[in-house]
Amino acid sequence: MVPENTELSARWVLFHLIEEVARHAGHADIVRESVDGRTFYDLMAEAEGWGDGPWSQS
User: Fold this and answer.
1) What CA–CA distance (Å, rounded) separates 55 from 43?
2) Whole-prediction pTM value?
3) Where are the domains of the chain?
4) Cα–chain-centroid distance for residue 58?
5) Any idea of the CA torsion for 24, 26, 30, 36, to the nearest 10 degrees?
6) Which of 42, 3, 19 is nearest to 52 (CA)?
7) Which one of 4, 5, 32, 40 is most buried, counting C-beta atoms within 10 A?
């Protein structure tokens, strides 16, 4: 949290937004994995046509 009456640089705001988006994207990924049971590696392998690999082992 930023104290009141504090000047913020554009750099601070940009990095804070990046941090928050990354955090929420990670949370959404955790929820998606718990719903459909597929991991990031499974989805990337399918999308990129990687074939079978260590990520496909459950």
Assistant:
1) 10
2) 0.48
3) 10-56
4) 22
5) 100
6) 42
7) 32
* Token duo for residue 40: 């990031």
| Token reading at 29 | 């990924």
Chain position carrying tokens 């940009």: 14
For 26, counting Cβ atoms within 10 Å of its Cβ (0-12 exposed, 13-18 middle, 19+ buried), the class is exposed
Kindly indicate the confidence band of residue 29, based on its pLDDT and cuts at 50, 70 and 90.
confident
Helices (H), the chain: 10-36, 40-48
Q: How far is CA 9 from CA 6, 12, 15, 18, 56, in A?
A: 10, 5, 10, 14, 44
Instruction: Name the residue type at position 2.
Output: V
